[in-house]
């Protein structure tokens, strides 16, 4: 499965083009094309709903909710909708604001002082209701053992909020950077419970599901109706394999189960501008971001209040277990749709649907201005991403470097070797060719640091020498670490042939052994990361959690031991080239050891986070 990732991406591009290049003239042709994609991409089952303000254009599905029994997906099959739940939480908060019980600018410390968060900038940059809704608090996202469990256990709204306490530490001033964070919505769920006296799911059912007649939907931590709910699958060489349906530990962030019929009613609520449960004014507020540095610098796109911007549509996506889901709507074009799968992703079907509804529509033209070289010149240079979703992965996120430059009077940014043109459409505000709205802005944060906001990502300007030098040193270190494996293999063969003794073998093979332990630990982590339903294994002592702990910790121990042994036996190495090569390998291992130690990977026991 892992070996076919690149092939899958290539095929995705080819198949996606073959589908979208064929002209589609009717809903029937559209749904027929989607059904073909479902089979081509090995999606076990797909829920699909398409609607306009008043009429249902399609409600049903393709494939199987249960592959073993060949139970088909229908308009009443419940799928796990994941983070789409956040839209419901945001609506509930907006209802409480309409009722005068809450205000977007209210401080969390005032509304719910018992929430155990930490914010060293609270006096000047407090955590507010709007920063929770728009994911600008600066909190770390859930810890690896605080998302799923295999145990079918009920939690109260308050218990689920308190489970996330380890993540409730602001890493930068709130209302500065957007970074997606489930923990924010666990807190909002608790605020709903505190202000209404009802558990969050009870409030949502009574004030959103029932008024919208979403009678088959519910907010449940695991599948309560396994005989009728869609089951979860992964696809491999042996076909579809069922996987466990995990229990969610952050209910307010992702517990919705729904059907195409019910989600169509939800879409019609959005297309209608909020009726019958929200005023149009409240809907407009929900769809407009208002708390981040990007907004203050002039951008109007991005993540609003439980509501994402997709370029020409708004909505939200979801990912839980092997379920993937998204709903999108365009009020101006009078259409909306929902899709959800129980395995193998969504295959860009949303793009196919959007292309169908916008094929005869003239794209909005954005007013482009001449490049203001004088204003942009101070912002030229290198930028490092500084908006990690998970603290644990922050050091890898920061390796992403963006270069801003000018060539032939054209501003561009380069990332991962790819150059992209930028078009100015306002003061220090830019878009890309073919994109209908600005998504890039240059500004300065409260500390006076120059900042680039690039399609919601926050990056700070870094000196070229520091930015390039650090990455160059890391690259050299990686080269020497892989060289150590070759040296270790040669040394082992030489030892078996009697050409070197045990002491010589130790200093030549220890680096390779340490690398193998590191790869073991990283591979176990990547297996869980690429198969999110396996996260439940990190809540307990399991093969993967122990492999992460032992593999990465033993790498660190052996890296230190190797350096100590090499220093002791340095003079005994006869070859000058071998001597300094082993020294560079040892220093490379120590560099990686310190990086992993600083970022919490050495000794990481995920079940204790």
Description:
The structure is a single chain. By secondary structure, the protein is of the alpha+beta class. The protein has 19 helices and 22 strands. The chain folds into 3 domains: 79-358, 3-Layer(aba) Sandwich (Beta-lactamase); 373-462, Lipocalin, CATH 2.40.128; 470-608, no CATH class. The strands form 5 sheets. The chain has an 8-stranded antiparallel β-barrel. Helix 3 (85-98) crosses helix 7, helix 16 (464-496) crosses helix 17 and helix 17 runs antiparallel to helix 18 (543-569).
Quick overview:
By secondary structure, the protein is an alpha+beta fold. 40% of the residues lie in helices and 18% in strands. The protein has 19 helices and 22 strands.
């Amino acid at each position: 499965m892992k070996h076919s990732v690149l092939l899958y991406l290539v095929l995705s591009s080819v198949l996606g083009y073959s589908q979208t290049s064929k002209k589609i003239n009717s809903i029937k042709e559209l749904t027929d094309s989607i059904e073909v994609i479902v089979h081509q991409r090995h999606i076990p089952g797909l829920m699909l709903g398409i609607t306009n303000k008043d009429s249902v254009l399609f409600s049903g599905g393709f494939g199987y909710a249960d592959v073993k029994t060949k139970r088909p997906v229908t308009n009443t099959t419940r799928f796990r909708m994941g983070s789409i739940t956040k839209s419901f939480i945001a609506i509930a908060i907006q209802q409480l604001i309409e009722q005068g019980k809450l205000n977007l600018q209210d401080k969390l410390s005032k509304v719910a002082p018992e929430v155990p968060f930490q914010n060293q900038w609270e006096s000047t940059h407090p955590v507010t209701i709007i920063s929770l809704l728009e994911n600008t608090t600066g909190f770390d996202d859930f810890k690896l053992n605080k998302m799923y469990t295999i145990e079918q256990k009920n939690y109260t709204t308050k218990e689920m909020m308190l489970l996330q306490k380890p993540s409730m530490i602001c890493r930068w001033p709130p209302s500065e950077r957007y970074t997606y964070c489930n923990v924010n919505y666990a807190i909002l769920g608790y605020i709903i419970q505190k202000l209404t006296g009802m558990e969050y799911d009870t409030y949502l059912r009574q004030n959103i599901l029932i008024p919208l007649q979403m009678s088959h939907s519910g907010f449940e931590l695991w599948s309560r109706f396994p005989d009728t709910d869609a089951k979860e699958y992964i696809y491999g060489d042996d076909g579809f394999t069922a996987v466990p349906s995990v229990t969610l530990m952050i209910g307010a962030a992702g517990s919705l189960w729904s059907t195409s019929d019910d989600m169509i009613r939800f879409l019609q609520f959005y297309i209608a501008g909020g009726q019958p449960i929200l005023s149009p004014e409240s809907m407009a507020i929900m769809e407009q971001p208002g708390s981040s540095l990007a907004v203050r610098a002039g951008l109007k796109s991005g993540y609003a209040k439980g509501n994402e911007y997709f370029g020409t549509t708004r909505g939200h996506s979801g990912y839980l277990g092997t379920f993937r889901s998204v709903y999108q709507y365009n009020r101006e074009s009078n259409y909306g749709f929902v899709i959800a799968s129980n395995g193998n992703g969504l295959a860009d079907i949303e793009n196919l649907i959007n292309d169908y509804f916008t094929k005869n529509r003239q794209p909005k033209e954005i007013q482009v201005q001449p490049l203001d070289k004088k204003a942009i010149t101070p912002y030229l240079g290198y930028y490092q991403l500084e908006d990690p979703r998970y603290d644990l992965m922050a050091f890898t996120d920061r390796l992403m470097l963006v270069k801003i430059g000018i060539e032939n009077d054209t501003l561009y940014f380069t990332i991962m070797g790819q150059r992209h043109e930028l078009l100015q459409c306002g003061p220090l505000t830019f878009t890309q060719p073919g994109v209908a709205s600005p998504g890039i802005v240059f500004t300065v944060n409260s500390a006076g640091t120059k900042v680039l906001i690039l399609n919601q990502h926050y990056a700070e300007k870094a000196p070229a020498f520091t930015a390039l030098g650090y990455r160059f040193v890391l690259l050299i270190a990686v080269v020497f670490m892989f060289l150590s494996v070759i040296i270790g293999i040669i040394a082992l063969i030489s030892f078996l042939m009697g050409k070197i003794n045990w002491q010589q073998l130790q200093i030549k093979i220890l680096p390779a052994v340490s690398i193998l332990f590191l790869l073991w630990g990283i591979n176990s982590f990547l297996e869980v990361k690429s198969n999110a339903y396996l996260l439940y294994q990190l809540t307990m002592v399991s093969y993967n959690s122990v492999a992460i702990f032992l593999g990465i910790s033993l790498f660190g121990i052996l890296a230190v031991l190797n350096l100590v042994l090499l220093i002791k036996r340095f003079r005994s190495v006869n070859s000058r080239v071998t001597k300094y090569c082993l020294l560079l390998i040892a220093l490379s291992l120590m560099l990686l050891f310190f990086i992993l130690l600083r970022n919490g990977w050495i000794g990481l026991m995920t079940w204790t986070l």
